[in-house]
Request: fold
Amino acid sequence: MRADYYRADSENGDHIEDPSEDALFMLFDDLNGSDNTFVVIRPDQDDPAWSASVTYLGKGGYEVVRRDTTRHEHEVVTGTSIGRIALDLTIWMAARVFPERAAPAER
Reply:
């Protein structure tokens, strides 16, 4: 079964369909410097137009990469608060285009 909107996959094989902010927090909290260094979040579709990733940098630091080809966005930032990273990504993903979801004016 496919996710309705997006999926999160970590390097160690953890997978969550349509993760909540809390679920993202837990995935980020599990990151480490040896065998689980990143999480990728993207629509559950072929050739997705956007994606985000969070990579553990060590010593409590994280790199966040956001890409959206439809908006010509590519942003790379670093942070130390996984709570803030999870919140920011949840807000950012809510503004993405999902072809199967009606546009805000059509709801």
Summary: The mean pLDDT is 89. The helical segments are 21-29, 82-94.
